[in-house]
Amino acid sequence: MEHPITIIGAGLGGLTLARVLHVYGIPATIYEADPSAQARPQGGQLDIHEHNGQRALEAAGLTDEFRAIIREGGEALRMLDQHGTVLYEEFDDGTGTRPEVLRGDLRRILLASLPAGTVQWGKKLTGVVALGAGRHELTFADGSRVPTELLVGADGAWSKVRPLLSDAQPMYVGATFIETYLCNVDERHPATAEAVGSSAMSALTPGKGIVVHREAGNVLHTYVELTRPAEWIASIDFTDVTAATRTIAAEFDGWAPALTALITDADTPPVPRMIYTLPKSHRWDRVPGVTLLGDAAHLMPPSGEGANLAMFDGFELGKAIAAHPDNLEAALTAYEEALFPRSESEAADAYVLLDLCLGDRAPFGLIDFFNGAPKEERESHRQP
User: Is the distance from CB of 202 to CB of 357 less than 8 angstroms?
Assistant: First the structure.
């Protein structure tokens, strides 16, 4: 190829694609808007599943590096009611089928596996022009222009590449997850630390809940989940940390202090993560020279699958390109034919999980699911 495969976005999906292509000896360049790998936090704990995320890492030749960043004991789960009573509990069985790692650590090993210069930092995409015959020219905020024979949008929910393929726009699903962190919990907040346990904890009721992951360094990473209109969220001034915290905490009046401390005593300002999705059956007609992966292709409610699916997409696309190095359209067709039904099935499951967590039967619908589902199915559907 005259110009390397061009990937927009240095998230887990784009990095996995570049790494798998590198394993096959195929050059790729990633353009990322962030000025550096350290420019912003990369999120919290991820469950990496055997059937997709771990397969992608194996294809990338990074299984040993992945095993080295696993947090031991991270597969336990407990569910509480609003008073702190344990309703359901699973203990880490030591099998390692759903190991937990920090997103930042996973991104770090993917970045380290790529040749120097693969990721071009500080490159914010501002425009794309079709040149014909499947080729495109990209324009970046710094004024630079780059031609490409194959353009991959791995640039997330608000993808700048997606409009080349689809008119679909992300829509708010009516739920917002408000993110906080609590540090040095065993010393400073022993009651909260005991309530959360050794790994993941959920306390859910219809319309609201608190979901927590214990992370390395004695940190609790919390998502306060609320089903509220977008207007309600917009009415909160999150720049006024005290007032915003008070408003959010008021939604949990009467809950156990060990749980509400995750809101009121947080060591970080509350950050709202409004949940947007694409249509469950999002797909597009084949457009020469361009495709999507990860959230750019199939944005869905949190289900514990987002990172896994993005990496699996990267693996599948890299494999398809390697199988058809002289016929990129055949590669993209093969990739998308598998992508569309897989994404639709996962999106449908994600909506079911969101309802189990915050719908009218919460938390007992979710507990019934855990009690009745096979272990591998339970493991692949944990928030966030």
Answer: yes
